[in-house]
Write a structure and sequence with these properties.
This protein is an alpha/beta fold. It is built from 5 helices and 7 strands.
Length: 163
């Protein structure tokens, strides 16, 4: 296992939260590829509340977050809410194997080091809730059931506030 992977795994486990992106700032508008190799811009989702999750196939908490993200995408109206899962695997085949075991009913995009740097990713999973204007509302490191409940409350509050 290379040093980068070990470092990312340790970060995933201890969930450090040193970020370049602060609450209220507009999220970086970088182009990414979706799983069909089509170019996608985060600005394409302007007007929607976004749940942006950075993940990798080797991340144990990520396995638990995928069913949660499927529930989120199913629960809230597609015209007001979107889950974006950004894969950070070095080898796309690893991510494809992961997605066979943990299917995604939401948009999956391929991340890169530029995006990770712009968001200040320190571990995986790391999630960002972004308002309809593209501004960061809250960021979460790691995943567990108590964090899931908190995320749902935040999303529901923001969706109600939008109405």
């Amino acid at each position: 296992m290379n040093k980068l992977r070990v470092l990312m795994m340790v970060s995933c486990l201890i969930s450090l939260q040193v970020l370049a992106l602060d609450k209220g700032e507009v999220v970086p508008q970088l182009s990414l590829l979706d799983w069909n190799n089509q170019s996608v811009e985060l600005s394409d989702y302007q007007g929607k509340l976004l749940y942006i999750d950075f993940w990798a196939s080797w991340c144990i908490p990520c396995k638990k977050s995928f069913p949660f993200m499927n529930e989120l995408q199913a629960k809230y109206p597609a015209d007001k809410f979107q889950v974006l899962a950004i894969n950070m695997d070095e080898n796309r085949q690893d991510a494809q194997e992961f997605l066979k075991k943990y299917p995604a009913n939401f948009a999956v995009l391929q991340g890169n080091s530029e995006l990770a740097k712009a968001f200040g990713i320190t571990g995986l999973p790391m999630a960002f809730i972004v308002d309809e204007n593209g501004k960061l509302v809250v960021k979460h490191s790691g995943f567990n059931q108590s964090k899931a409940s908190k995320k749902i409350k935040q999303i529901e509050y923001l969706l109600e506030k939008k109405q």
